[in-house]
Amino acid sequence: HALLGDHDALHLDFDNAIDYIVEKAGDINVYDIKIDGDYDGNSLLTSELLQPYFRDPSILKDIYKLNPEIVYDSQSDKVYEGLYTDFMKNEINLVEELLYKGLPVLIYNGQDDLIVQSPGTMKWVDRIHFTQSEEFRTKLFTPWKINGKVVGAMKSAGLLEFRIVNNAGHLVPMDRPV
Questions:
Q1: With CB atoms counted within 10 Å of each terminal CB, which end of the chain scores lower, N or C?
Q2: Which GO terms describe its biological process (predicted)?
């Protein structure tokens, strides 16, 4: 339906597709398919226990080098609006440029994410062109272990590494911080 330059139509088509899936799947959660209904992933960031930490001027200034006068929150309308036209934009060339410049690239995906699902991510990662492209594409995933426990799957070649994180949804760092 939408043309690539029509950002409003792209957002609308995406939202309609997600709404359809949620309706047909029985109120599945778009951020984590293991959860029914709304996702409370932001509760960790907004909990009363962590608010003093996230609002402490010395932590913001000294550790994170952030302006303590700005109120930081789990989401920002300004950031969303600033990135609005980047939605569904192909940025493989940026990843290729990083690899060409000799910078390591790690791409990860939560296995239980509906919005950015692992098979779709695997497809675009396999399209990245770099000196070890063929090796990367033909390589099989291997178990990714931490302390002997399988926590996901991974494959890599050269400076490109891709990991799928088990039991994690859209917000991987909150679902599986280690």
A1: C
A2: proteolysis
